[in-house]
Amino acid sequence: MPAATGDVALHRQLGMTDDEFSAVQGELGRDPTELELAMYSVMWSEHCSYKSSKPYLGRLPTTAPWVLVGPGEGAGVIAIDDDLALALRIESHNHPSAVEPYQGAATGVGGIIRDIFSMGARPIALLDPLRFGPPTDARSRYLLEGVVSGISGYGNAVGVPTVGGEAVFDECYRGNPLVNVMCVGLLRRDDLVLAIATGVDNLAVLLGGATGRDGIGGASVLASAGFAEGAQGKRPSVQVGDPYEEKRLIEACLELYDRKLVVGVQDLGAAGLSCAASETAAKGGMGVDVDIARVARREPGMNPVELMTSESQERMLAIVTPDQLDDVLEVARRWEVQATVAGRVTDTGRFRVFDGVFDAIGVPGANPQPPPGDTAPTVTSDALPVADVPAASLGDGPVYHRPVSRPSDLDALQDDDPTPVLRAKFPNGTELGGELLALLATPTIADKSWIYRQYDHQLFLNTVVGPGGDATVLRLRTPRRAGGQPAADADVARPAIAISTDGKARFCKLDPRVGARLGVMEAARNVACTGAVPRALVNCLNFGNPEHPEVMWQFAEVIEGMREACVALGLPVVGGNVSFYNESRGADIDPTPVMGVVGVIPRLDEAPPSVALHDGDAIVLLGATRAELGGSEWAAVLHGLRGGHPPQADLEAAAALHELVAGLVRERAVTAVHDCSDGGLGVALARMALAGDVGAMVTLPLDDGLTPAETLFSESANRVLLGVAADQRAAVLAQASAAGVPAIVLGSAGGRELRIGSDCTVALDAAATAWRRVFE
Amino acid sequence: MGAMKRFAARVDITHLPGVADPQGATVERALPALGWANVSELKIGKSIHLVVECADVAAAEAQVRAMCERILANPVIEAYDITVHELAAR
Amino acid sequence: MGAMKRFAARVDITHLPGVADPQGATVERALPALGWANVSELKIGKSIHLVVECADVAAAEAQVRAMCERILANPVIEAYDITVHELAAR
Amino acid sequence: MSVRVGVVQFPGTNCELDALDAFDRLGAAAELLWHGDATIRGVDAVIVPGGFAHGDYLRTGAIAQFSPVMGAVRDHAAAGGAVIGICNGFQVLCEGGLLPGVLQKNAGLKFLCDTVEVAVVSAASALTNATEVGQILRIPINHFEGNYTCDAATLAELRADDRVVLRYVANPNGSVDDIAGICNAGRNVVGLMPHPERASEAILGSTDGVVLLRSVLAAATTPAIPG
Ligand SMILES: Nc1ncnc2c1ncn2[C@@H]1O[C@H](COP(=O)(O)OP(=O)(O)O)[C@@H](O)[C@H]1O
Ligand SMILES: [Mg+2]
Fold first, then answer.
1. Its pTM surpasses 0.80
2. Which of residues 101-140 of D touch C (CB under 8 A)?
3. What is the ipTM of this complex?
4. Which of A123, A213, B82, D84 has the largest CB neighbor count within 10 A?
5. A240 with B20: Cβ contact below 8 A
6. Which of these, A749, A752, A755, lies nearest to A768 by C-alpha position?
7. Residue A85, Cβ neighbours under 10 Å: how many?
8. Adjacent-strand bridge partners of D48
9. Distance between CA atoms of residues A680 and A701, nearest Å
10. Whole-angstrom Cα distance, residue A498 to residue A88?
């Protein structure tokens, strides 16, 4: 088979440029074999190589004393205390979900979970930031329902609770939904495992599901090419997830870690075995030989290219020492996980693939049972490799400095400020109750409980604050040992964590740098609202076609904005994911960086105050309100005015606000707390009233000549609403003043109406009906 | 509508070749422990039975096929097989 | 084992009469909006395909029946129907 | 001596650690029982916990009922020992014939994770002996197949013999007669869809499950009264 091919058409068919092909020839000093070409084409795809984004990602701050593992591994890891650490990562599965929403979302969940347990951590939580076209559009609704069922179906069955997320709706996602999934895992610090192959003659054990023809070339075809809607040709690439296989794989791997039976571990994701084997070897500065005869197949007649690039789900590669192999195989057998010795670590620095040589040269283990219809492979000791490449070269792909240019229509868009139009339409004295009700019922703002009710969000008994609040709060406890034995220090009080994901695409469209800052600020603010100190950030960068210079400009600006915000807020970026080519019919999506922030609550004995207002308590607004309507839900969604500038993103004010709020919450000086974001003050107040099932009577702070409508619906950043009991009022105001954070008492909770100033009165029941609008 | 006849249709929905069937594979793996080690290629799909009123069998078949494409099956991952027969008048 | 032959079996698992089929009912309710108001009695069950090695067709059928009784179907809510045919030798 | 509670672990089970935690917190000695071992190692009570045993493939509980451990669980039940199936465990006990009926897909055809109210209907069971009839408990549910179904004769028998132990206050899933939990004729085998272990600490939002867990511990140490 390994007849060298100089066929120019073939590498182009595989999505490789002529320059990239020449680079492969240079790397090898000869023409690549078909298998080698296939491996390079997948590994050097945008999806695997980050060739367009690499030059920028290096700008992000990635270190802090508590960062144990930064970007570049399966997941970032931060220390929680002396014993425990947290692994975190976010990934997109946008294109597969557009083709088959249930399975696309399900396999996205499966993939991110593997990233987490490949670090030695037990996955304890998922969050699912989602973006769709309007739910009134039949296709968008089909995608929405399919994606939610897929996350529910896989996440619940695999036994990882989905504890939060987002569901945002906008025209720009109509042809290209975004399905991002974040996962968090808990580990003992001394259980940390890395994806490294060391030790000559150590063995690479392939664990998990059999390898099938599904997902062949998935990385290059599905993830790197924009596609027209209904693209028939891609359909056979749909992957079916098996949460039951993954659950057994998790338990088997955790037992292997607990018993210290592995040297290194890597999940099989994009580019399948090619990537996992070559990457672990390259990281360890080693080489690796793989024998495809040792790969368990799901179907007869599979060829080396298929076996080496298949992205079949639920597989892991573990590096183990020969003397521990029997123990490893025994753990796998107990969990009914198929395990075969598929590779061997060498000191050659080469990644070599053979077909039927291991049995002949005495590498322990046996060939798996061939599938019905296949005959056993022929075994010879003098077989030539079907691929033989420098291990590091596959992961060392090209880097592109793509052209960058600011969109020519951006000035016009920014100049198209909605404020004057809306001021004319809603002058002082206009009744605003109808506007508030309409805002509460927009798909993005309306109640999401119909989504998260489909997710197990309580498994593991950690969920102190589940979905429905600002950030999810999970208490942490020392994990039990394999077999259910309680840890020796099971009773030690551990900190809790808070997690939130946020992305402000409309703001990024208007000004990507400011929009990115606002996203980081909002995620950190949500986390602060639980009393937590924001500690780390992961990001999923969903963008259009990087070959469009405007998209690359947006990307560069977003990275800068994120860098500025992370530096100012002391947030190391410990992981991320880039998804380009989110476009349909030539139109790029709005730049959508999604930020996942994790914060730490040093000690948690009881649930923190929630968003729910309590009858009689004062309502205090922290932060300044300005006439900032650009990109707001009110202007853009209700009134179709999508221009203007986004709100100011004052990072110093953010840091002060977060510290103040987290402190007030930890001291329990407040009875309710809610971040003020989408829909502005009006929506935030209504949400707090609905959660507490109590009305509110407030006057609006009409500073600087703002109209009531502007005050109610502006989305000025750095604001938080508090519920405060009478005896804490003075103390709260004093602390705010000491922190330099504007604070004002708006009114108090009570009654069955929301009476906001003189122009906006809404019955609580009407607000409930509007907000609980059902999109199912 | 006097000319309408009633047809019973059965749709057998299976996985497209190459698409994994974890459910079938799991059940197959459970059988040897129950004494049945001689079973292979076990696949689990859906069977849909319905009654449709149409002018003739060709129309009934065409409609069920259209229903499979649109709602009954997921053509991205599933194949379907339709059998239709006329029911005796009520 | 030279005398063993391979048989393909299909098991059609349906709801017992009187047992609610919410999934079937939901699909049936969705059809009129798609222009198919002439469908009734829609039921969604399972179809299981498998290959079994046995001495003869009677043995194959008997085994598949036993498998249905023990594991493939739940007699509290499900009925099953079996068809078996011999496969050509490989 | 603490009461020994065994929590069965099938591949795909996921609430086993939660059950261990909840019982340990009440002073019991909880341990895992591996599905592949044909013994329950002399524990006083057996919990078949929630999750997705064998992926819930084919039908919930369809494959799990054949695990070697289930023979020992059956023997324990036959001897009057307490056996409690929670959620997926309830489904396994129904499939395995330890309890009548079956749990079908929720009427709404969606997975449901929510906190619901259930009313105690019978205080005479291994799960409810510390409760009072009519007591309302707020406990989370977490299932796709919680819609209890049985034939009319079985339902009549369950009602006549006071074997419906818990009912939903507002039926979330279409269960016949609002059934959330039932017991066997001996009253020592009980299945319920709600998760008492998820309502066992104030910080998690409810402690209403504790009375049920305490009932199990009480039943485990009281010799069975034949039904
Ligand atoms: N797709 C989803 N999956 C899980 N939880 C979600 C999802 N979408 C929204 N939520 C939850 O709903 C709650 C409200 O979210 P959101 O509407 O964004 O409000 P907020 O303005 O408070 O951030 C949050 O707690 C969030 O975690
Ligand atoms: Mg928020």
1. yes
2. 101-102, 104-107, 109
3. 0.94
4. D84
5. yes
6. A752
7. 24
8. D85
9. 13
10. 13
